[in-house]
């Protein structure tokens, strides 16, 4: 009987250190490890993830699947029930070593019908709903905090590396002949921060961009892949097509976003083009596409009119 260990992290900045600690403490004998590529989103159904698919292919009746905590494998009620059905079909056991699910036998079935016990199903659904509620509350509190900070006049994003009260000194020193590297050492910041502070003084600065109205300057926004894929099949104006073709794909888990630089007006035109993703006129909406369009709409709505 084999011990199959499954690991996953949601972003490529995370590590499996915490999972390793929990699984090492469990004392699993001769583990066969299946680890998803970094950045595999929990939104992707477990049965569609490559390494979990490999685990199911490798597993044999009587093997045990080990995970550090339930939400490394599933997200939401339906994911859990789908996975339990597949594990039951393949006669694989599931062992969770940390969290609320660690004290439960999630594979318990009725001795005569073979169906998942109603008490197990109830506990699974209750705990999964509580987890979803916690994540939703965290998102709402984060949003409210950002709105409150904005109302106080606080701007989001990374703070300037060169303090505002030092910018004039940096600019004056640069005009006197100090190099960017020397200024970076003096102020203990990156060279990029110095270049930002003296951007309009650099030899390659183009004043036409600075003098242009702010609303005409290119703005970079991340466009969800489902929006980008739809727009590629749509008739676009030359400026819209150029912005889309020049976008840079950025990997996000199993998908990507397209980093598009365009004038705010072009972003709004692209947003209008993908309105059909919301459904209507007898065409049913695909939830994932509708969600992607609204994510793009939220980003476009922050642009200055």
**What value does the average pLDDT take?**
80
Q: Any low-confidence stretches, pLDDT <50, length ≥5? A: 207-212
Q: Report the sheet with the most strands, covering strand number, pairing sense and barrel closure.
A: 4 strands, parallel
β-strand number:
7
Kindly name the structural category: alpha/beta
- Put simply, the count of helices is 12
Helix content: 40-55%
What is the approximate shape? Answer: extended
Rg over CA atoms, rounded to whole Å, is 26 Å
Distance between the termini: 64 Å
Q: How do the SSEs run, as a string of H and E?
A: EHEHEHEHHHHHEHHEEHH
In what range is the share of β-strand residues?
5-15%
Q: Which strand order does the major sheet show?
A: 2-1-3-4
Keywords for this entry:
four-stranded parallel β-sheet; about 300 residues; three-stranded antiparallel β-sheet; single chain; extended; alpha/beta
What does this 3D model show about the protein?
By secondary structure, the chain is of the alpha/beta class. Helices cover 45% and strands 12% of the residues. The strands form two sheets. It has a four-stranded parallel beta sheet with strand order 2-1-3-4, with helices on one face. A three-stranded antiparallel beta sheet has the order 5-7-6. The N and C termini lie far apart (64 Å).
């Amino acid at each position: 009987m084999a011990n199959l260990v499954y690991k996953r992290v949601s972003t490529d900045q995370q590590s499996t250190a915490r999972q390793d600690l929990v699984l090492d403490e469990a004392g699993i004998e001769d583990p066969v490890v299946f680890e998803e590529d970094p950045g595999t989103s929990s939104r992707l159904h477990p049965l569609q993830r490559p390494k979990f698919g490999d685990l199911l292919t490798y597993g044999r009746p009587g093997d045990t699947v080990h995970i550090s905590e339930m939400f490394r494998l599933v997200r939401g009620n339906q994911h859990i029930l789908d996975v339990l059905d597949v594990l039951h079909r393949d006669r694989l056991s599931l062992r969770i070593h940390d969290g609320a699910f660690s004290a439960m036998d999630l594979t318990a079935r009725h001795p005569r019908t073979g169906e998942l016990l109603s008490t197990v199903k109830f506990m699974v659904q209750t705990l999964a709903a509580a987890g979803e509620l916690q994540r939703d509350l965290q998102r709402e509190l984060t949003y409210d905090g950002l709105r409150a900070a904005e109302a106080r006049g606080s701007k989001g994003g990374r703070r300037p590396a060169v303090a505002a009260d030092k910018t004039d000194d940096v600019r004056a020193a640069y005009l006197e002949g100090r190099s960017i590297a020397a200024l970076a050492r003096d102020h203990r910041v990156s060279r990029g921060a110095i270049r930002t502070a003296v951007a309009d003084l650099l030899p390659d600065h183009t004043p036409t961009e600075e003098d242009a109205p702010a609303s005409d300057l290119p703005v970079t926004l991340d466009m969800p892949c489902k929006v980008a894929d739809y727009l590629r099949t749509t008739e676009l104006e030359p400026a819209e097509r150029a912005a889309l073709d020049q976008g840079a794909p950025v990997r996000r888990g199993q998908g990507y976003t397209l980093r598009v630089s365009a004038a705010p007006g072009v972003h709004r035109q692209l947003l209008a083009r993908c309105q059909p993703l919301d459904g209507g006129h007898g065409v049913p909406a695909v939830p994932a596409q509708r969600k992607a369009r609204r994510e793009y709409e939220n980003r476009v709505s922050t642009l200055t009119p």
